Amino acid sequence: MIVEIKVVIPKKLSAREKELLMEFDVLQKERGANKEEEGFFKKFLHTFSNEKP
Questions:
Q1: How far is the C-alpha of 33 from the C-alpha of 25, rounded, in Å?
Q2: Which end of the chain is more exposed for a tag (fewer CB within 10 A), N or C?
Q3: Which residues, other chains included, contact 51 with Cβ-Cβ below 8 Å and sequence gap of 6+?
Q4: How much of the chain, in percent, has pLDDT values that exceed 90?
């Protein structure tokens, strides 16, 4: 079996999209997301913000 996955990464996020991602990050932490998941979302959010990791 061969599976092909196409991942599209946006170059710019609107203010609302950033807000939704931040809210999702908070919900992940509340549910006890593991360190690997938190790392991914923090890296993703830092990619689209002016923050440094």
A1: 9
A2: N
A3: 45
A4: 21
